[in-house]
């Protein structure tokens, strides 16, 4: 049970960190375009809301190192694009689909962790956290003497209805 909890928490927090990183890259790419050094005939970039892969890099990359340039005057790209030319082709992948998929998966991981936490609390004493597994439904907690949550709720419902609870 502990391994599942650790995996669930790792997925939950790792996904949250990935969502923050993707959102930062997506929003930041509206102002800056980052281009990698040339790897053979390939060059990679991040800017204008998308990742880019070019097979014949431009002349601006002859320096062989990373470079940045401002691109705040250009529009965001929202969809996939593939371009070809006589000596160049490029594939452009927008960041928002990856961000959306990661956000949804992380949301499901957070929800699963919340449900697991609530289910664990149902079988625990609400006052001291002692596991009530194996105890009768109406039995008090052997650790602290607190009444079970179901019995407390039933007593409150009886009082709200106007009838007094009968003591065993």
Question: Would you kindly provide a written description of the structure presented here, covering whatever features stand out?
Answer:
This protein has a six-stranded antiparallel β-sheet. With 168 residues, it is of the alpha+beta class. The chain has two domains: 98 residues, no CATH class; 44 residues, no CATH class. The protein is built from three helices and six strands; from the N terminus they run H-E-E-E-E-E-E-H-H. The protein starts with a helix and ends in a 7-residue tail after the last helix. A hairpin with a 7-residue loop joins strand 1 and strand 2. Helix 1 runs antiparallel to helix 2.
Strand order of the largest sheet: 4-1-2-3-6-5
Mean pLDDT: 80
Question: How many H/I helices?
Answer: 3
C-alpha-based Rg, rounded:
28 Å
Number of separate domains: 2
Oligomer category: single chain
The run of helices and strands is HEEEEEEHH
| Shape annotation | elongated
Q: Report low-confidence residues grouped into runs of 5 or more.
A: none
Number of strands: 6
Distance between the termini: 37 Å
Q: What structural category arises from helix and sheet content? A: alpha+beta
What is the makeup of the main sheet?
A: 6 strands, antiparallel
Percent helix among the residues? Answer: 25-40%
Which percent band covers the strand fraction?
A: 15-25%
